[in-house]
Amino acid sequence: MTSIRFDQQVAVVTGAGGGLGRTYALELAARGAAVVVNDLGGNISGDGAGTSMADSVVAEILAAGGKAVANYDSVADSKGADAIIQTALDKFGRVDIVINNAGNLRNAYIDKLSDDDIDSLHSVHLKGSLYVSRAAFHHMKQQGYGRILFTSSAAGVFGNPEQAAYAAAKAGMVGLTNVFGIEGEAHGIKTNTLLPMAASRMAEKMDPAQLQQFAELNATFGNALTPDYITPLVVYLVSRECEANKSIYSAVAGRFAKVVIGLTKGWLGPRDAPASVEDVAAHFADIEDQTVVDEPCSLVDELQIIAKHVRAE
Ligand code: NAI
Description:
The chain has helices at residues 19-30, 52-63, 78-92, 115-143, 154-157, 164-185, 208-220, 231-237, 277-282, 284-288, 299-312; strands spanning 10-13, 34-38, 67-71, 97-100, 146-151, 189-197, 247-252, 255-259, 263-264, 293-294. By secondary structure, it is of the alpha/beta class. The chain has two domains: 10-259, NAD(P)-binding Rossmann-like Domain (Rossmann fold, 3-Layer(aba) Sandwich); 263-312. Strand 7 and strand 8 (255-259) form a beta hairpin. Helix 3 (78-92) runs parallel beside helix 4 and helix 4 runs parallel beside helix 6. It is globular. It binds 1,4-dihydronicotinamide adenine dinucleotide.
């Protein structure tokens, strides 16, 4: 098997000063990529800033003979996001890969979530990912090549208590992936989303009961709930070799899987008038029936799938 390399390619990894992002940056650099190591350097809540986190990862890459430069801008600020991509262009002349990994965490039950928590989580995760990827998309379109990865979460796609704002922002990655995937396809740009799970400072925010479950499952997985067990899928997804687009993947403890969003065949109401509420109640089991499940690949595709079922009635 030929090894997967990134020579002459430039990667931007946001939030790469620790946790998951650090392992992505190190692996990409080890495989020849020049890496922009972005990190705001604040605390887990997203407050504060500093240069030491990004600097230490850059130092690791340089010590191993790789190419890297640090950037300390916040992804949550659109000018900062532009500056992150500009750093790649100024230092290395192009941008081929963007891994949107930067993130903060503020857990609170729904009725305890403050406006500031909601704004902060949405600014960093949702707006931040869009700002950085938008800035890169322009250059990727011009060069006819790009790989973008968004970082979602099982909290966003499957749910988790105390994370309403975080989960909503993370579910937004699915929307970003769908539209970047559709608009990028004709320009050689592939976009996907990852749901990772690994021990990092973020996992420390779990409540004690979840932490206990996490520890027990980690033991079952042979203590493989670590960032380096996530990295192989991430690096493959942003490689030239990977043709996947507009897809969602889960990586946990060395188990890699695709996440699918399906549409049941559903129940078709009368054509001559809208169904009554009672009709819907009477056919709710048909609406829920998962015997036939389609996976529409766009809004129009959903309409075409419905039309196919209508014609078959
Ligand atoms: P981490 O806290 O170790 O890493 C996040 C990094 O992002 C930090 O180094 C932080 O300084 C940086 N950052 C925060 N706000 C920033 C901003 N505005 N601009 C630039 N950098 C900023 O956490 P971890 O676990 O490595 O998380 C990485 C990503 O994976 C996050 O997006 C997180 O939401 C996601 N994730 C992690 C899971 C896990 O199990 N660790 C589960 C699901 C998703």
